[in-house]
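the two lines:
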Amino acid sequence: METAFRKIDIDKYDEDVLLEEELYEPDPRDPAQVLADTRAKATTVRSFLAKDFLVTRGDAAGALNIVLDGAPYGPNVEEAKNTNLQTLLTILGSTKVPEIPGILKSLSQDTQDTLMKYLYKGMAMPSWGDSSWSVFLAWHEKLTEIAGIGCIVRVMTDRRTV
Amino acid sequence: MSTPEEYFIAQAPISAHAFNADRKEVCLSLNSNEAQILRKQGHEWKIVETLSEHDKVITSIDWAPNSNRIVTASQDRNAYVWSQATDPLTGQLVWKPTLVLLRINRAATYVRWSPNEDKFAVASGARAIAICSFDPESDWWVSKQLKKPIRSTVLSVDWHPNNVLLAAGSADAKARVFSAYIKDVDKRPQPSVWGEKLPFNTLCGEYSSPNGGWVHSVGFSPSGDVLAFASHDSSISIVYPGSNVIFNIKQATLPYVSLCWTSEDALVAAGHDCQPVLFQGSEAGWRAVGSLDDTTAPKSSGVGRASPVGRLNSAAFNTFRNADMRGQTAAPGLPGAGSSSEAELPTVHQNTILSVRPYEGTPYQVTRVSTSGVDGKLVIWNVAAAAGGGLAGRMEALRV
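prediction for all of em together
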């Protein structure tokens, strides 16, 4: 059976095509501002980690909230997106596995959804090595148990990709 | 606790179903270009007539209770109105089709009669909704199209009780409320929370879920003052236009694709999760009450859903885990590691529910709803099962 027609980009012939940008509200901040915000957050979180703040105070949830709140999305902010993922990975990697469920339960539903977006983004990174993948997988398992499959569905549905 | 009435219709997906006024007959389509009318005989539904006029798969069916007319919409870009007439040869009552001039160039996806049954709305992939009314001079149904500002396929519609306003859910992640006022058919509508002046194609409201996603289903509350919609981000949203309050309830399950209101403060939603769920609330807030399906009761195979939400414990997951941890491969034909029992869901429906509709009661007090799905089942549920026989009820029983 002839199937090549399925690969034709029919949107090319549509004058009134639905654009990706029409499917979500754009970030009101301009890209430079987003990058500056993200770097500031990275510095805050790094100083937390340097003082062993997370371990002594057990405030990984607070650090996660800083990173995940107002996470960069949309076009033209690739650098901010990657910086934020790096910052997130340092938090995830420095948390002990038994503490994960408690931290996840303290997050709001929106924050859980954003975290899941980053877990999938992290697992899609080609050259990050096995150690970070195992961190992402451990968090993914726990987050799925707490937030359900609905959380994964929202990651796939949401066009505000991080 | 009352058990749902369960009918296995066929080994094929039921694309759509619609009961007649006295609920003795049902019109449904088994994912084909034909619609069947079935009559209840004992505990069985028997085919009494087949409606074949469409060339492609029928996507939606609606049966007007008072005028006893059926309307079908199909991927062949046509809709037909079917009415009963006496066949001059045999003298028997048969269903005769009337063509509708939809003027759309993509599939018709959804159809619903207006409350007065003098109009119907056909949603389509042509970024348009055809509002159809009867033209007695030419003896056919003519249409007027709602187009702006729809940006993608319209997936569902629902009529406001005033016969003028129409809600539409679409693949551009928006739920909208339009005026579908037709001069020759409608009287001037009373002002409502949706607006006062309502010429054709007035956009009275446009809403979306925070996470976006296709809006699979829309529904006006019985009074028409509240709008609910289910979207593909596994959430339902309830809109109060008067105070501009929108409640968004995110669920931990797969998305819902169909919903229907059961009273002014409650609705039932169902979909990929394979079970109908009751939601209750008011302008102060909304919450999920529980499933109409008692998934903890032992079904034929005795598999309970003891695991919490989101536990990755599906048959597919276990297949991969066994392959990974123990080197087991479930070859087809061999009895794999409990694959036959785990393949059966603890729910009544064994696959996605495509449609949930009111079955018994008045719009303000629906006591039973009907569902049909990809598993070929037609099920009639007691709405009270979620509230009375839910988890609280079972805990009560345990204490005794």
